[in-house]
Structures are given as C-alpha cells and as structure tokens.
Amino acid sequence: MDLEKRLPQPAPATAEESGSLRASDADRDRIADILREAVAEGRLTAEEHAERVEGVYRAKTLGELEPLIADLPAAHDRTGGPSSGYASAPAPAPGRPSPGAVPAAADENLVAVLSGSVRKGRWRVARRTHAYAVFGSVEIDLSEAIFEQRQVVIKAVAIFGSVEIRVPENVSLRGSGAGVLGNFEVDTLDSAEQDAPVVFVDGTAIFGNVEARPKRGKLIRDLHRKVRGHLGH
User: Fold this and answer.
1) CA Rg value for the chain
2) Pairing between strand 137-141 and 162-167?
3) Cα-based distances in Å from 198 to 23, 60, 87, 89, 175
4) What is the mean pLDDT of residues 44-52?
5) 82, 94, 112, 219: which sits with the fewest CB atoms below 10 Å from its CB?
6) pLDDT in tens, 130-172
7) Can you give the pLDDT at residue 73?
8) Is the separation of the CB atoms in 158 and 182 below 8 Å?
9) Is the per-residue pLDDT at 6 higher than 90?
10) Could you tell me if 163 and 133 are in contact, meaning their C-beta atoms sit under 8 angstroms apart?
11) What is the SS3 string spanning 135-195?
12) In this structure, are residues 125 and 116 in contact, taking their beta carbons and an 8 Å threshold?
C-alpha cells in the first residue's frame, strides 16, 4: 500500500504565509543594501532613506520588509522570482585565505610602543599587514583605502595596548584570534558582492584589546569594477 499517496500532502506556502515568516539579520542587511544603492542613485532622498532604514531594523517579518523596497527597481532586478523582493545571497567568504594568495611575511608593519600609530585615508592596502601595540594604540581604517587584491590579512598583536580596525560595509570580514586576559573581537561580515575583498584579521590580545568591525555608512564605490580592474580582469 502506498501510504504516501493516501496521506494528505501539505499545500505550498501562500504569499501571505511567506510574508509572516520571521526576518533574519541577513534579510534586513540585504534590504538595507538595496536602500543604500537607491539613495546613492538618487532614487531616495536622505530623509526617505533614513526613515526606511529605521523601518528595516524595526521589522520582525518578511512581510514588513517588502513594502520598504517595493517601489525600487532593485527589488525586482536582483531577485530569483518576480515578487519575492529579496536578492539571492552570494556564497559566503572563506574562513581562511586561499593557499598562496597572501605572503607569510608582512608587506607593511605598524608598530606603537608607548605611542600611537594611525593608517587611514586614501591608501593602498598591503596584502599582509602586521600591527603591534605595546602600551600603545594602532588604528587601521580601510574605509577609504584602495584594494588591489581580494584577500587581505591583518595580524594584530596588542600587549597592554589596543588595535582597532575599521572596514567598509561592503567587504567581507573574517577573524581568528585569542584574548589572554584581554579582548579579541571581530564582527563577521559578508558582502553582498561576489567579488568583494575579504579582510582576514588574526592575532592575540594580552591584557589588551583587538577589535575589527565595519564602519557604518562607508562603502567602496564601484566595488566590482575597481577590484577587477586592479587585478587586470
């Protein structure tokens, strides 16, 4: 006897039922990305953008998110279906650099001993940077930097000191390290762009602090064109 045929089969979820599904952080981030692009293209005013972003992070269900982008082309151009309103996410960035992509020796060293060291503004990011803060502080701000490769490693060592790293919101960020009576914290970030740079942060905090996170509102403009252009593609 074929029990499967005799048992009632569940009906597919209706649009109304799908809209009642709980929204994840990834869903909210995708909608926020669409809104950022819309204000950059002049489709939304700054006031409209601020109002809608506030709605994004108040939303609890997918149905509450969809109206926030319903009048924007990206809601349809970047979806897998005509009315879903959500972009298909790219494959997540790897947890470690690809073999041979980043040298073992540092291209640049930043050292702060009883002092401070700052790297920010418009500068070319090295493939590997080592930052050492001993009773001092190192600040690395990548929000306006030029990426000439897709994989970048920053090794951060803080001994009774601090290393702070800030990245644009549209790159991927990975971390692996340890705190010894200190704090080692990396906010994992996945870019919506398949070819976005990946910043890997590793190291140690001994009686100190290592922190890496995105800098809100900062983006690499024309990311796909710039990164591929630097790589000669």
Assistant:
1) 22
2) parallel
3) 26, 30, 20, 16, 11
4) 87
5) 82
6) 999 999 999 999 999 999 888 999 999 999 999 999 999 889 9
7) 78
8) yes
9) no
10) yes
11) CCEEEEECCCCECCCCEEEEEEEEECCEEEEEECCCCEEEEEEEEECCEEEECCECCCCCC
12) no
HSE-CB at 215 with a 13 A cutoff on CA atoms is: 16
Please tell me the distance from the alpha carbon of residue 116 to that of residue 111, in angstroms, as a whole number: 8
Q: How far apart are CA 117 and CA 149, in angstroms?
A: 24
DSSP codes of every residue in the chain = --HHHHSPPPPPPPHHHHHTSBPPHHHHHHHHHHHHHHHHTTSS-HHHHHHHHHHHHH--BHHHHGGGTTTSTHHHHTBSSSS---BPPPPPPPSSPPTTTS-SS-SEEEEEESSEEEE-SS-BPPSEEEEEEESSEEEEE-TTPBP-SSEEEEEEEEESSEEEEEE-TTSEEEEEEEEESSEEEE--B--SSTT--EEEEEEEEESSEEEEEE-TT---TTHHHHHHHHTT-
Q: Which two tokens stand for residue 140?
A: 């690395």
Nearest to 230 by CA among 88, 108, 127: 127
Q: How far apart are alpha carbons 34 and 39 in whole angstroms?
A: 9
Nearest CA-CA partner of 145 in 163, 118, 113: 118
Chain center to CA of 129: 20
Q: Which position has the token pair 């819309």?
A: 38
Res 221: pLDDT: 62
Q: With 70 as the cut, is the pLDDT of residue 202 above it?
A: yes
